[in-house]
Amino acid sequence: MSYSQPRAGVLALTVFAGIGLALPAAGQRTLSYTESDYHFRNGIELFEKSNYGAARYEFRQYLDRRKVSENASEAIAADQNVVDAEYHIALSSLYLDEPGSEVLVDRFVKNHSQHPKAGQLYGDLGQYYYEREDYTKAIDFLEKAVGQNASGPQMAKNKYRLAVSYFNTQDVNRALPLLNQIKLDPDAEDAPAASYYAGVINYRNNNFSEAVADFKRIAQNPTYQNEVPNWIAQSLYRERQFDQLLAYTEPLLRRGGTNLSDVGLVTAEVYYQQGKFDRAIPYYKQYLAAKGAKVPGPVKFRYGQSLFRTGKYDEAITQLKPLSTGKDTVSQYAAFTLGISYLQTQNPSYALTAFDQAGRLAFSKPIQEEAQFNHAKVQLDLNNGTDAVKELNAFLQRYPDSPFENEANELLGEAYFASNNYPAAIAYIEKLKRRTPKINATYQRLTYNQAVNDYNAERYAQALQNFDKSLSVQADAELRQSAQFWKAETFSAQKQYDTAIPMYASLSRTPGELGAKSLYALGYAYYNKKDYSRALTYFRDFVGKGAQAGDAGLVEDARVRIADGYFATKQYNEAMRAYDEVIARGRGDRDYATYQKGLILSYVGRDTEAKAEFDKLQRQYPGSRYLDDALFQAANVDFEKGAYQVAIRGFSKLIQDRPQSYLIPSALLKRATAYSNLQTYDQAIADYRRILNEYGSSDQAQGALLGLQNALNDAGRPEEFSGVLGQYKKSNPGSSDVEKVEFDNAKNIYFNEKYAQAIQSLLAFMQEYPASPNLNEARYYVGESYRQTKDVANALRYYNLILTDGKSEFATRAATRAAELETSQKNYARAVRNYQFVLNRANGKNEEVAAKLGLMETYFVAPKLDSAAYYAREVVEAGNVLPGAQNRAQLMLGKIALSRNDYKAATAEFEKTIALAKDVYGAEANYLIGEALYRQKKYKESIATLLKFNETFGEFEYWKGRAFILVADNNVGLNELAQARAVLNSIIENASDDRVVAEAKQKLAALESKN
């Protein structure tokens, strides 16, 4: 009985201690219980303050005190506080993350399996691991806690934690039922969060209707209200409920708010899919503004596409350009759309780069194919005919069944045409199994152009063949008539006038220019047949029609031929009137008409008037190519009527003033005859000897030999003739003479361009025949051979030997060559001296203009720009006496201005050059306009100028290459480095001029080194 009361007392105290009541001490035993309770209460307080180490100590003190108490084992078994103490010790060990803490928990649950604290401990342990995000362990304990089927807030909390743990371990099928229970519980604290997680799971499981319901349930919850719109919009979008989506998102977006960028994106994507690109654009723009650099490439692409589809090409370019340089599907589509956008903004060179990028990527085969086709088309549009030919051929081989096959074949013909490679184009089309009407039209033009080229190159048989090919196609009636005309011209060029005349006649009834030209051609055909009466008829008809057609040059020529026709048919009065009309019209043939009038007057015995006309020509047209003839004929008038002294003065004027004239041998022979007739034999003998010595191979030499024989006989000195005859035979051997054979052989070696062997043969000839009349000609060919083998010193030596002699017809040519070499050696003073030699001895306008061109070029490099400009203006004023001379001089005026940085004046001069002719000088002028703009940092204007190059000057490969190198320089100036690289790579791959390729490689290497 003595032990029962303490146990009961202990039980009472334990209960009270469990509820936190304090009791007064009563005796020694009571004091012991109170002290142990004190440790328990301290442990509870410390645990609640999360001071787990101190709490565990107090709880252990409490248990240790109970063990030493009276009837301790019975008291412990009955004491509820002991269970609490063990429970808190286990939790404190877990919270302190001490080794063996889980063993304490397992022991507690095993020892107190029926105690309520065991179930609570599962929940607490689950919470502990849940909060540490160790969801696998949390699940182990939370499943046990939930398995107790208890109710109340704590059970709801355990279910929520278990569901979230399932969610985080990807076991959403077990998470969703729990979340569904909680989300609908109005008393559950975690119901909004459960609804959110359930919505996410339903969205991921493609249960979009359920997801929408879950998210709408918490639409007004402050925690989730900013996220819910994105989830609802995404769910409706995935469910393709576009009308509901727009009805939900647009009012929301109009109201504004935070975190709505994804809502805006989904709205934009709906409008994009519906093809309402204009309505998609503002939402894409809003999304890009919010996300910045984080926007995915596909979204940027669709925004760019929307801009493109609504015609906002410049904005589309801005969006698509950064995407186009990658190596993925988006990049390929972006580059393709970018290329079309550049075409729409008239920027074909940039389009070329974009299509090239799209064509190199193979993610979408159809896009790759169309991009490569478009690249070739743009090459053709830019008049890069050679490049277009290569690309289109490659395209047809790579895609034999392409939907673009017919168009590619048509374009390939055009590309061959643009590349001026007509034979290849013709051969290509002739091999095609089927031809479209457009290909036939191209074939008609190609064969026509090739025929004209053949005609100009005097390949008449090929010309006729190609004209017939062109005539076999009916596509272009006007071109067909032109082919008929030029076919007739081809027969005329071969003097087959009877074949040509019916062709001209059939065309002469055609209205317009071609009919008029056929009349003109008929006139010449009959004129060349010496059927002057018929020629006159057609020339007169042409003058009427040609004047209407506006072909002033041919009309004036026809007027001259009418006068010539009257002259040839001895209708002298009509001829005189016709020549007077030519003179009155002030055209370029006035000097010729004046000369012809003098001839007519001399023929009809009106010698004074004839001489007056010849004198007029000398006064009014001092640069005329008929000047020598007029001097000769004026003297001949006096000679024919026996006024020998006057005739001698006239011939002497020609001989002295025009020493290089082709009429010198004739003038000498006439003068010698006049001297003989006056019995002034010494002068006569001197002239005859001069002919034999200096012009021994001329037609007048035989007459001079006979005249000399007679003059020596008449002078009583016949014995001298034997020596003269011997010397003549030596200097002028027959055709079988060894000297002639040797010289002809040496010349043949030279003309076959075997210059080293030619030098040996020609030097051997000069050594064996030092007195040969061909000596200066041999010297000239030696000099030329040395020039060709880059031996400048020896070339100059032999040119100067000719100049020292000064009498040879090769002197002017030698002076020109010497001047060119002296310029190359920077011996400008000597070069100028040589050109002045040519100018002073010029025989006609041709040589005069050639000398002035040389002086112009030499003074420019000297540099003496004022002198260069003086001679350039002289050449410009002289007109195109030499082919291209005027253009070359006009170009020089521009280059002089450019060298002075006078860009305005330079551009004006270059534009005049281009207007004169579309030749190589025009090509250089076009390039230099681009350079002038580049120097002024007007990069876009420079590019625009240079990109027109192919339209007019595409055949000049060197200048075309230089132009596109300058395009790349301009791109660098604009900081368009990718474009610059693309242009340079294109030059390297496609240019045919090695100099251009080398420069492009150098530029590209410099560009790459900057990165």
What do these coordinates show?
There is one protein chain. The protein is an all-alpha fold and 1011 residues long. Helix content is 77%, strand content 0%. The protein is built from 56 helices and no strands. The two termini are 102 Å apart. The model is unreliable at 1-33 and 72-78 (pLDDT under 50).
How confident overall, as mean pLDDT? 85
What can be said about the biggest beta sheet?
A: none
Task: Tell me the total number of β-strands.
Answer: 0
Count of DSSP helices? 56
Helix/strand class: mainly alpha
Please estimate the helix content.
over 70%
| Radius of gyration (Å) | 54 Å
Summarize this structure briefly.
The chain is an all-alpha fold and 1011 residues long.
Task: Name some characteristics of this structure.
single chain; 1011 residues; mainly alpha; 56 helices; elongated; disordered N terminus
How is the topology of this model organized?
Elements: H1 4-18, H2 27-48, H3 52-67, H4 72-78, H5 80-95, H6 101-111, H7 116-131, H8 135-147, H9 153-168, H10 172-183, H11 191-204, H12 208-217, H13 228-238, H14 242-255, H15 261-273, H16 277-291, H17 297-309, H18 313-320, H19 329-344, H20 348-360, H21 365-381, H22 385-398, H23 405-418, H24 422-431, H25 437-456, H26 460-471, H27 477-493, H28 497-508, H29 513-528, H30 532-549, H31 552-568, H32 572-584, H33 590-603, H34 607-620, H35 627-640, H36 644-657, H37 664-677, H38 681-694, H39 701-714, H40 720-731, H41 738-751, H42 755-768, H43 775-788, H44 792-805, H45 811-824, H46 828-840, H47 845-861, H48 865-878, H49 885-899, H50 903-916, H51 920-935, H52 939-947, H53 949-953, H54 957-973, H55 977-990, H56 994-1009
Helix pairs in contact: 1-2, 2-3, 2-5, 3-5, 5-6, 5-7, 7-8, 7-9, 8-9, 9-10, 10-11, 11-12, 12-13, 13-14, 13-15, 14-15, 15-16, 16-17, 17-18, 17-19, 18-19, 19-20, 20-21, 21-22, 22-23, 23-24, 23-25, 24-25, 25-26, 25-27, 26-27, 27-28, 27-29, 28-29, 29-30, 29-31, 30-31, 31-32, 32-33, 33-34, ...
